[in-house]
Amino acid sequence: MSLEWRGAAVAPDDEMPSPEAWKPVSVPGRPDQFAGAEAVAYETTFSDPRDESDAHALLVLSGTYAHTRVWCNGDLLTSHDAYFEPLRIRLPESEEYRIVVECRTPEDRFGGLHATDQLPPERCVPGIWWDASIETRPDPCVSELSVQPQVSDEDVTDATVEVSATVLTQEPLDDRITLSLRPEGDVRGGGMMDRARVSTDDERTTVTYTMDVRDPSLWWPHDRGEQSRYVLRAKLGDDEHSVTTGLRTVSYDDGLRVNGEAVPVRGVTLLDPTVEDVARAVDANANLVRVRAQGTPPEVAHACDDHGVLLWQDVPLSGPGSFDSERGIALAARLNTTYAQHPSFAAVGVHDEPVSPYADGLGSGFLDRLRFRWRAWRAGYDASDARSVAEAIDDVPTFPVVGPPGIAPDAATLYPGWRYGDATDLPWLCSQFDVGDVVAGFGAGALGTPEPGDSPGFDNACHDRHVDGGVDASQSYQAGVVREVAESLRHRAAPLMIVDSLRDVGDAGMGLLATDGTEKTAFSVLADCYEPTQVILSDLAPGERDIVVLHDRPEKANLTVEWDCNGDREQAEHTVGPFARVTVDTLTLSAGDDVTLAATDGQTVVTNEYRISE
């Protein structure tokens, strides 16, 4: 059932909002006329939607940012404080309904990126962002259904699905729910069916049940296998509810492991996640997206499942400042429950960028490095609360602290060539501060349009220190930094690396795509850098430089490698082992030399072109 909504900016108080005037708005959505409002109220009216076969009417809200209260016909029904968690409300009996939903800006530190200046105000409007609908159901019914797959780390053929079903009933009930789990599409393996007893005198009860999965078919990232999934159906009387899930294990032990096998991670950060961005990540040869410091919309999480893209899901907590660890622990547990059904769910970050940038503008000289080390030492961070929050997550690996070197981050954000120094300073940063295994952000900013003005999250002063020119020069510089850092991290065999970020949220930014999805120069550069098998130069400066094959696949490959330096062409045959780094030859290069490298296994050809810097 579709609804017509009206909205108004309101002053938060304890009473139901009663604005002087309502304006028509689109819900779900983020009405930009209310940008900057502390609270926004939404109203809709409708007649009883049930027909003679229906007993229950449910209001379904998803993405209610950030703290929400819901009234029906003047009575407060519920409040909610975790917008990533769907809200399903049973409506009371009535012939006519007037629903009022008030959404407020965060009342605590858990507004995430939307509570910072990293996103434009129109993306942060308090509202119902993802879904708003009415459902009608018979009696009794399964009003909510969630699943949590479990696969043994020791034996991936040992798999179960933990089922949780919320039952609504108007009369005392003694019955059984029929649960069926069947492979989706052409997935091999048979279906399973069980029955779980539900006996209650309450109007609402929750039934839990564990189903064994015979001969499980596992879900894999797109560069490693198929995205096998299962549909779980729960049937009670005339009512049926279903949810789609997948089976896999995820762990971290000197690298991410999926189903017990090493998966070198090549990721991108999403600042304003959309379904289209997941497909774009695949086009960039990424196998992971990090949704930074915010909840992931359900359709984006499903797109990750569909495309075989791992999902790094952050707790919505960003920027310096203390926070209530007990509140964080509760939110983390709810976040884990919300996303556990998605086989793509692979990691959680807790506190994003917990200290202010301390090295902006420093160069690469001896004194600048001393200043960097001094400022890093002074920028200490007590990670005890973040680690307490991380302990609430037990299904996937956690990275409690995501931030710059010097604060002992679990996942480092490294910006040589942008915030400080040159891109070639990456090895010094990694060795000096013992970082570089897990890199949750690297890259540089660039213009997306000739006259960007002030864009959220874009440092104009930083940009102007590095670039003297327009869009072309800006994007060329960004591409150079992305290539240098990405290739250096891969050469070091960094097991997890994420570029910041995939797409801009304004007319300029760290994105490899403009806000409308138009490619910047760096997008194709990253796609080349992220090829699972690639051939690179060890350094782009004059001197003796190695030709290195990077092979991030679990099986060996027989490759033909070819290189061309200023028109002089040579080639060689090489066999490279699983996850290998092999030096093919060494070139003596001078400033201005043009070098083209290529490698093929007989089916796929990868290339890289370089011009040696002055």
Strand runs, count: 36
What fold name goes in the CATH topology slot of the largest domain? TIM Barrel
Query: What's the CATH H-level homologous superfamily of the largest domain?
Result: Glycosidases
Beta-strand percent range? 35-45%
Indicate the CATH architecture of the largest domain.
Alpha-Beta Barrel
The CATH class of the largest domain turns out to be: Alpha Beta
**How much is the radius of gyration in Å?**
26 Å
The overall number of domains is 4
Poorly predicted runs of 5 or more residues: none
Q: What sort of overall outline do the alpha carbons produce when their principal axes are compared?
A: globular
Helix- and strand-based class? Answer: alpha+beta
Mean pLDDT value = 95
Helix coverage percent: 10-25%
Provide keyphrases for this structure.
614 residues, alpha+beta, Jelly Rolls, Immunoglobulin-like, TIM Barrel, 6-stranded antiparallel sheet, 9 helices, 16% helix, globular
